[in-house]
Specification:
7-stranded mixed sheet; alpha+beta; 21 strands; 17 helices; 4-stranded mixed sheet; single chain
């Protein structure tokens, strides 16, 4: 039995998961979970990466000695700036911050898409850098690291940019799989990111100080699919190629897996992204807003003193009919704030029944997500030519039985829900292969997921 620590940092929480890997067995144990709370300072929304780093160290300490490897995955797009000495130049800015408002209109997106294949999101890394160009922090910066690469640097002292996360930035040429000189030169951006590293590369051993503080001894750190969706798609227990996936958490990443990118005008118009995956694959997908709508609604009710228990809310929502469906990707749903009020306003604007109770609003959210998944999967299949026979929902959303059933109903396809720990499993499997514990291609790694519990929902 070989033990690997998967550091999995999400937009609302982080955790360190220990995965025991044998040839035909995977055993998952969450060693430590910690909150990820953004902090607003002088009107700018930041990630508190030092608090996250403390959570990672606590998690490795809880994982204990005897680890065969450590890998880090996280959300995409955001980056940290370091000076010549490798010191952090302030906490990274959060992608939900308003600094990128209006920036994308200054960029010729059709050419950008032809090179990078990345969908238009107003907070893409490329637009963040355009917004930051000329600032004191960017002038002082000697290098930039995406979030998983920052933690890899703090663990080992080694820098690099892992491929799958780099492909989300809007700065990588999707065909050469290297940083695009054309994009940097056209936009006048400094070249701050280190060279590309492939997933499954040995980054280095943990620094002696880290090893001593965590009590883990000399432990190798491997690059993995460091965009959490890349690791989650490795953790999809698919058989064959005719599947769609929904990696569902705060965001929902919805798409198909392909051998080559699709950068047609139709794909650009439909706002699909070609994000690179493990073993040369392409994640042809679109971002859907995800359970953020429900999470932010729960926070609003909590602030207002409205007692809402999630399990009871979903049970009551399941007894209600479908009444209102909104587009979850409308820009007014992106920032934090009064999500119930925004959802009600959108129902009024579109002439639909306005949800009056928390359960009615939750039903509106889940019906809207299921409908968005249906539309996105149908478009992905049409644009790529990849037929879809089954939908896999992985991540935290796989626990939401109502969402899974509504998705099966909307798509008219069976939905296989689970594993909820897909990102951690995919992270650990790439480490295990790099360490020589398991062998084979991506399909062989997925075959090792056969014993992981899943649940199938047939369309009603």
């Amino acid at each position: 039995m070989a033990r690997f620590a998967a550091v999995d940092l999400g937009a609302s929480s982080g955790r360190v998961v220990v995965v025991d890997v044998e040839r035909d067995t995977l055993v998952v144990r969450e060693a430590h979970r910690f909150p990820n709370r953004p902090v607003r300072v002088r009107a700018t929304l930041h990630w508190d990466v030092l608090a996250l780093w403390a959570g990672v160290l606590d998690g490795l300490r809880a994982a204990g000695p005897g680890l065969c490897g450590i890998g880090v995955d996280s959300w995409a797009i955001d980056y940290a700036l370091l000076d010549e000495d490798g010191a952090l130049l302030g906490n990274p800015v959060h992608y939900r911050d308003a600094r990128t408002n209006g920036v994308a209109g200054r960029v010729a997106f059709d050419r950008l898409y032809a090179v990078t294949g990345v969908q238009f999101l107003p907070f893409n890394t490329v637009f963040q850098l355009v917004a930051a160009n000329g600032t004191a922090a960017l002038r002082r910066a000697a290098r930039a690291l995406l979030i998983p690469d920052l933690f890899g640097y703090w663990l080992t002292g080694e820098t690099g940019t892992e491929l799958t996360n780099a492909s989300t930035t809007g700065l990588l040429d999707v065909r050469t799989r290297e940083w695009s000189a054309e994009v940097h030169d056209r936009l006048g951006l400094p070249r701050l990111f280190p060279p590309i590293r492939q997933p499954g590369t040995l980054l280095g051993d943990v620094l002696p100080g880290v090893a001593e503080e965590c009590g883990i001894g000399r432990t190798p750190v491997y690059t993995v699919g460091s965009h959490d969706t890349a690791s989650a798609v490795v953790g999809v227990p698919a058989r064959g190629e005719r599947f769609a996936y929904v990696s569902c958490g705060t965001w929902s990443l919805v798409g198909v897996e392909l051998p080559e990118p699709v950068t047609t005008d139709a794909a650009r118009t439909a706002n699909f992204s070609n994000e690179l995956g493990v073993d040369g694959t392409v994640r042809f997908l679109r971002n859907v807003m995800g359970l953020w709508l429900l999470q932010e609604s729960l926070r609003t009710w909590e602030r207002e003193g409205v007692p809402v228990r999630l399990a009871d809310l979903l049970a009551e929502a399941g007894r209600l009919p479908t009444r209102s469906i909104v587009d979850p990707d409308r820009p007014e749903f992106l920032p934090p704030g009064d999500m119930p009020g925004r959802l009600r306003d959108e129902c009024r604007r579109t002439g639909q029944p306005v949800p009056a109770t928390p359960a009615e609003l939750a039903r509106c959210v889940l019906d809207s997500l299921a409908d968005a998944y249906r539309r996105t999967i149908a478009e992905a299949a049409d644009l790529s030519g990849r037929a879809v026979d089954v939908v896999h929902i992985v991540g935290g959303g796989a626990r939401n039985t109502l969402l899974c059933q509504l998705t099966a109903n909307a798509c008219g396809l069976p939905v296989v829900a689970g594993p909820t720990e897909a990102a951690a499993l995919g992270n650990a499997l790439v480490q295990a292969r790099a360490a020589g514990v398991v062998r084979g291609q991506l399909s062989d790694l997925r075959a090792g997921l056969a014993g992981v519990p899943t649940r199938t929902y047939d369309p009603e």
